[in-house]
Amino acid sequence: MDAKERLLIWKTVIALQAVDALKPSAKVVEIAKQNIEGVLPDEALLDECENLKNEADIVSVRMFVNIIQNQFSISQFELVQIRKALFTGLLESPELLRTANLSKKEWALDGLSLVYPKAAKIQTQLNKLFEAETLFDFEGMKESKQVVKHIASFISGLWALHPFESGNTRTIAVFFIKYLAYRGLALSNDTLAQSPVFFRNALARSAFCDGKKGFHKTNRHLERLLKKIILGGRTVVFDPRETHLYYDPNGVVLKSAVEAEKEKGAAERLDEKILGGQKAAPKKGEGKKEASKKGAAKKAASKPAAAKASPKAKKAAPKKKAASKK
Questions:
Q1: What does the alpha-carbon distance between residue 80 and residue 75 come to, in Å, rounded to a whole number?
Q2: pLDDT of residue 213
Q3: What is the pLDDT of residues 158-171, one digit of tens each?
Q4: Using N-to-C axis directions, what is the helix angle for 168-182 and 144-161, rounded to 10°?
Q5: Helix and strand element counts for the chain (H, E)
Q6: How far are the Cα atoms of 10, 54, 224, 239, 265 from residue 42, in angstroms, in the given order?
């Protein structure tokens, strides 16, 4: 595995901590940098976890180690082993399926709750899901659209079960990345790293249905993301606001504007830290446009305040003062 592949995986696993609103520290970024440069070997990575206290840091390292391992199978055993590897020492009995019923409010659903399958039914549904995927003729699909739709259906179906008490999205994200490599579709760009919250929200939308309000389960958001991940090409940053039930494509800003702004450029900042502050070259025309904006701002700031006031404004001032005397 070369440095470029390592960078892509590190960026992805660190960014994915955002799905549980966790923020990795500078320590894990330094570990990633050393590993990418070959200073810190893969065999020593798990030892580094002993010096980490932040859950996001520990899980990031463990996710990276798990993803670069070669062994994989489309099975419940694989899914459970991944969760156990990620959360041992952080969660109680991470190898066990949940035993309680679960519901969770989602921002993308405008505060409504997803109601996951009852705990008593999880095992049966997992068996059906993995058996169907194992027997599925994946090689028989020729069109890329079919591939995207099938993978979206499988991964969204797995996530919708929410088989564990917590840590489901990060566990399934690792399973998903390894599944893609198993199918010969390894990550080719950092779209997932750039859009972790969109990924989480897209999964929520795929599991939500409220016929009375006119909302039905849809994989369209997840398929858009997978299309860019699977088919490669230019990296795309997906805005998490687009997954909201009441998203208005005409420009109405929803309450997630702050969250979206935080996510925007997160992977770029990570790039700068790992690559020693190197910045991507601006797109054609962007440099001139930015320089023009700065020049205009500087010119405006240099004008005296009196010059900025219009003649009408100056004449209106005395009248306003006279009126106040009355």
A1: 9
A2: 82
A3: 999 999 999 999 99
A4: 150
A5: 16, 2
A6: 12, 20, 33, 34, 28
CB neighbour list of residue 68: distance below 8 Å, 6 or more residues apart: 1, 9, 42
DSSP 11-48: HHHHHGGGGGT----HHHHHHHHHHHTTSS-GGGHHHH
pLDDT at residue 253, rounded to an integer: 46
Please report, in angstroms and rounded to a whole number, the separation of the first and last CA atoms in the chain: 83
Q: How many residues are listed for the chain in this entry? A: 326
* Segment 285-310, tens digit of pLDDT: 544 444 555 455 555 444 444 444 44
**Angle at CA 226, nearest 5°, toward 220 and 231?**
125
Residue-wise DSSP of 80-128: HHHHHHHHBTTBSSTTSPP-S--EEE-GGGTTPEEEPPPHHHHHHHHHH
Task: Tell the residue number behind the tokens 């019923």, with chain if given.
Answer: 101
SS3 label, residue 298:
helix
Helix (H, G, I), strand (E, B) or coil at 293: helix
**What is the rounded (10 degree) CA torsion for 163, 168, 174, 176?**
60
| Alpha helices (H) along 136-219 | 144-161, 168-182, 191-194, 196-207
| Sequence-ordered list of residues with C-beta below 8 angstroms from that of 124, at least 6 positions apart, any chain | none
d(CA 125, CA 130) in angstroms, rounded, equals 9
Q: What is the DSSP letter of 262?
A: H
- Cα four-point dihedral sign 72, 183, 20, 66: positive
pLDDT digits (tens, 9 = 90+) for 41-94: 999 999 999 999 999 999 999 999 999 998 899 999 999 999 999 999 999 999
CA separation for the pair 238, 158 (Å, rounded): 22
Reply yes or no on whether the pLDDT at 237 is more than 70.
yes
- In tens, the pLDDT along 128-156 reads 999 999 999 988 887 788 999 999 999 99
In Å, how far from its chain's centre is CA 210? 25
